[in-house]
Amino acid sequence: MGFKSFCFKKSLWVFHFGGASCNNCDIEILDCLTPRHDLERFGIVLVGSIRHADVLLVNGSINTRDKDRLLEIYNQAPKPVLVVAIGACGCTGGIFAEGITFAGPVDKIIPVNAYIPGCPPKPEAIIAGIVKLVNNS
Amino acid sequence: MAVNLFYFLVFPGLLFAATVGAFLSWFDRKITARVQFRKGPPLLQPFYDFFKLLLVKETILPKHGSPVIFLLAPILAVFGATVAGVFILLPLFNITTGFKGDLMVIFYLLTIPSFSYIIGSLASGNPLAAVGGSREMKLILSYELTFLLVVAGAIMKCGQQFDLYSIIQTQQEGSPFIGSISGVLLFIVGIFCIQAKLALVPFDMPEAEAEITAGIYIEYSGAAYALIKLAKYIMLFILPAFLIALLMNGFNLKGLGILWAVLKIVVVVLLLTLIRNTNPRIRIKQAVNFFLVWMNLLAVIAIVLIAFGY
User: Fold this and answer.
1) Residue B39 needs a FRET pair 20 to 30 A away by CA distance; which of A38, A81, B46, B62 works?
2) Could you tell me if A8 lies within 8 Å of chain B, comparing CB atoms?
3) Is B14 helix (H, G, I), strand (E, B) or coil?
4) Digit-coded pLDDT (tens) for A28-81
């Protein structure tokens, strides 16, 4: 493991993209940053600007309007950027997969590095997913 | 020449100030985490952040803006912070005596990082960055006079001597300025000025994360953002050091004096962190009011007290 990838893994800055979400996943993501789970132990912080981001968290079903925004956000991110799809909607489409405005799960639009299923996934599941992401990237 | 380069690049300039500043930044984050009952980041976290930004990430140039000025601004910020740091730390560590009137030079050099952030944010062509830039400008307009009054108070207290070295010497021969009523008032005003200069929370409107998403830094990525981080680390060290030199006896690096020096820096940074963690962000109008009316009033009262010998 080189110095560069070591530093990268030790300091993942997260940008949160919410699609047409029901907000349960958003709440669970914010839960990870609270005192009980505290992801800053691993150097993970939430950033406001996509230009600072290393990880793009996508949750919620992506509909036809979100699709352009998601693509634009992904293109604006400085590479290398990891993409994590969170929740059933982000991974597969969930109950909206047959919907008329549904524009495909996240991995049809941008390349995805990790999937964290669940409706919503528990904070423990999100941390486990991030550990896997860090170990495999 | 070689000695000057060593002063600038290694000790007490770029390398030393940035390393100490990075550890202080970790201390700041750790205390923040402890205040919020969290565990906080590991000790080397600022270094991971810096090297990740510098080595791994891509630097994106703005499409609608001026790329050259956009990239020059962080370099200017690091340069200004480092030169100010050298001028502050050389007399403070008793290496050289500085020169007559170096307080004014330090005072102007300390504003260079803020000005270069403004230039960089306006060159990025992002509307949110422009909002942040205008806020930073208003913040500079409000705290600069107050900070000048703090420096003037210290100058008056040591008998109209315009260099940092004689201020430190006067205190070490007599008693530290903070031991008097006027000194305490100046210290309170100085702490709030530093808070605004570092753009920490009650005065972090330029980079308000919740409303304008990092504001002045919004378009910076990769190596350019790493340089901004570096400038911020250096500023986090040299501004408390400057206040300690002005009011708290400076450093006395003999024997246990080193421990005292470390303790002074840590206490000032702790104070900044606690203010940052117990206050909400105020509006820019309130900040201007706070500095131009209340802090100036305190500083003027302190200066009047000094004139009467308190």
Assistant:
1) A81
2) yes
3) helix
4) 888 888 888 888 888 888 888 888 888 888 888 888 888 888 898 898 888 888
A3 in a structural domain: no
**Is A128 domain-assigned?**
yes
Report the number of distinct structural domains present in chain B: 1
Most B CBs within 10 A among A31, A40, A51, hence the mutation to make, goes to: A51
In single-letter form, the type of residue at position B2 comes to A
Of the candidates B31, B48, B49, which has an alpha carbon nearest to the alpha carbon of residue B40? B31
Q: Domain range for residue B148?
A: 2-307
Q: A54 — phi, psi (to 5°)?
A: -110, -25
Contact B52, A8 (CB under 8 A): yes
Give the Cα-Cα-Cα angle B205, B206, B207 (nearest 5 degrees). Answer: 90
Q: The pTM is what?
A: 0.89
Measure the CA–CA gap between B40 and B310, rounded to whole angstroms.
Answer: 43
Mean pLDDT value across residues B138-148: 90
Handedness of CA A21, A24, A27, A31 (dihedral sign): negative
A5: in domain: no
Beta A82-86 vs A45-46: how paired, if at all?
unpaired
> What digits encode the pLDDT tens for the residues B257-279?
788 888 888 999 999 999 988 98
For residue A118, what are the domain limits?
11-136
What is the strand order of the sheet A55-59 is part of?
A: A45-46, A13-18, A55-59, A82-86, A114-116
Q: Is B62 on the interface with A (CB under 8 A)?
A: no
Give the residue on A whose Cα is nearest the Cα of B55.
Answer: A4
Amino acid at A52: H
